[in-house]
Predict the 3D structure of the following.
Amino acid sequence: MTKQWELIDALRHTRHDWLNVIQLIKGNLALKRYDRIEQIIEEVTAQSLNESKLSVMDTPDVAAFLLTYNWECSKMKIDVDVIGEIQSLKANEDKLYRTCQTIINQMAELSSSSSENHLLITFLFTHNKEESGNHNNCQLTFDYQGILQMNKEEWHQILKSLELEVDVKVDLIEWNEHECVLQTTFTIN
């Protein structure tokens, strides 16, 4: 019975999201803002393509977490971008899930409720040829725009803890009062 209710809940959220898009299109149609309608359709199409790519990475827990996150959290909006030739991350799913969950939950918890906060998560799949052989990687970037109520040193402590607990090295690439960029790489076997 629980599985059926989870499915019904997912359908309810999806229907709500699509109705919002239709309302945006109808409103802009009434205002004869055809350029904005085209932009909305392009944004929704890109979002749907990225969600589809995320769904085929062979990481169902990660996909479910990221695809449903915006349904529950109001302090921060997440977008996902998937670039490159998608490969299975099944062997890394537990580390990937725990890394995403830790970073996203920390950012949401420490996001200021007085600002618009946005997190773009980018999965960049690459193929590197080296002397020691071919390596496939997935570089994961968390690009936060908004106001985090913490300092740079606190991030270093969170990332150090993540490295010890999950065995994933995450680098702090950029830090200022309105932006935080974190990055890590998963080797694909």
In short: The chain has a mean pLDDT of 88.
